[in-house]
Amino acid sequence: MQPIRTGIFDLFTIGPGPSSSHTIGPMRAGHRFLQVLRGLDGDALARATGVTARLFGSLSATGRGHGTDRALVAGLLGHRPEEVEQAFLEELAMHPSQPRRIPLEGADLTVSVDGVVFGAVEGHGHPCSNTLVLTLDGPDGPLLERTYHSVGGGSVTSPDEPEEAAGDPAYPYADMDGLKAHIQATGQRLHRIILDNEAAITGRSEAEVLGELDRIMEAMRQSVERGLAEEGVLPGELRLARKAPELYRRGRAAAPASDRFLHQLNAYAFAVAEENAAGHVVVTAPTSGSAGVIPAVLHALREHLDIPREALREGMLAAAAVGFLAKNNASIAGAEVGCQGEIGVASAMAAALIAYARGHNYRVAENAAETALEHHLGLTCDPVGGYVQIPCIERNAMGAVKAYNAALIATIQNPDKHKVNLDRCIRAMAATGRDLHAKYRETSLGGLALSLTEC
Questions:
Q1: Which of 190, 443, 434, 176 is nearest to 330 (CA)?
Q2: What is the pLDDT of residue 162?
């Protein structure tokens, strides 16, 4: 197997909800295509008559509810997920038919949200369920075409474009066994291995990596606090009321007192998941649909258990290690493996974070992650109406609570008696995802997605 070269900030990315694969990925694809167009010579652009954007698979099935069309158009207009203004995305949604000029010299080309084509959901001939095809049209047919695959967490690949080369990791590994071998051989702690690899892969200094990690953690904190302050109804036809503020207020006064911590942990997860469902800025962790799990855990560790920032940083690095393994050896995309790859992986990452930030070693962190993931195996991705609301918001809270309980179990059991390791559990997740029928993988064609429409 090839060594893992995924970067920390490929997992933890700031951007608008409600779905990293359906919103952030397509926006990045649109922005990449714009850069390709900007590299063309003037003659090619002068002959161009338009740009066509087509969505396939899960992007087509639930793209309207996820805002895929406006995210893609925003990318074609030059916006990046990390920088796009929420007001601009809302304006695109309010005026979907309005033609907007693509910022290109030497061509007068426009694009509109309503102009995005929703293609075949099944049998579209592409290997990835989250596929989009962008075409520069000419008078006699396509002048240029690019295919992009949104593979989860906002990451985008293309068979038509060379991937940017990453550096070689300082400690190459492809699975948890390989990672543990480095820890045992060097005596380094888990977070140190991940930090050194990040510097080697990206060329960033340690100070730059930690500074960016602090920025990510601060963005997570802000998403919790914004969600706790927002009342009202979420966008979309479901007219789902926000619940986080009420959960927080009532949870703080709940009896018995022993329940209060879990009540507030639930409220934190609801807060971020509702922000994501509203299309507001969150941090993929590892996806937007699961963006509430890790911020909820971080907030609880910081506010209720007084865990210091340095320990939280180390916990985030341990969480990243779990995310790397799941992304590279299975998937974190609901369209590929169901919600086990989103909430399940987020819960596993959060469990490792909790155990490691509270001072336990890599073996305990691994066992915590495995326990959390094990109890999400087979979880379908079946959003009602194609919106990342039901059951997605509550699933974030369940993922946070399972993470906490998994960490509790792992920290008091004998590590030598833990039978199933993380590598085996990730392989089980990959096999289960392959066996899931397509209607249970982010198409809203089966499962709970039909609960409000069936007679």
A1: 434
A2: 86
Cis status of the peptide bond prior to 159, with omega within 30 of 0: no
Alpha helices by DSSP H, listed for 165-259, are 176-186, 190-202, 206-229, 244-252
Cα–Cα distance between 45 and 42 in angstroms, integer?
5
**285/156 Cα distance (integer angstroms):** 16
Please name every residue paired with 157 in a beta bridge, in sequence order, or none if there are none. Answer: 149
Q: How confident is the model at residue 354 (pLDDT cuts 50, 70, 90)?
A: very high
Q: Are 132 and 150 in contact (CB under 8 A)?
A: yes
Question: Residues 27, 301: contact at Cβ < 8 Å?
Answer: no
Under 8 Å CB-to-CB from 335, ≥6 apart: which residues?
21, 57, 58, 59, 129, 130, 152, 381, 441, 442, 443
- List C-alpha distances in Å: 441 to 22, 128, 336: 13, 12, 6
Q: pLDDT tens-digit profile of 104-145?
A: 998 899 999 999 999 999 888 898 889 999 999 999 999 999
Neighbours of 119 (CB within 10 A): 17
Helix ranges restricted to H, 39-67: 42-47, 58-66
β-pairing, 14-16 vs 281-283, is antiparallel
Written as six digits, the tokens of 85 are 């203004």
Average model confidence (pLDDT) across the chain: 95
Q: Quick one: which of 125, 203, 139 has its CA closest to 170?
A: 203
DSSP strand pairing (141-150 vs 156-157): antiparallel
**Distance (Å, whole) CA 128 – CA 118:** 16
3-class SS shares of the chain: helix, strand, coil, % to 5: 55, 10, 35
- Nearest-CA neighbor of 179 among 337, 404, 411, 365? 365
Closest CA to 345 of 27, 77, 2, 12: 12
Beta-carbon count within 10 A of 208 CB: 13
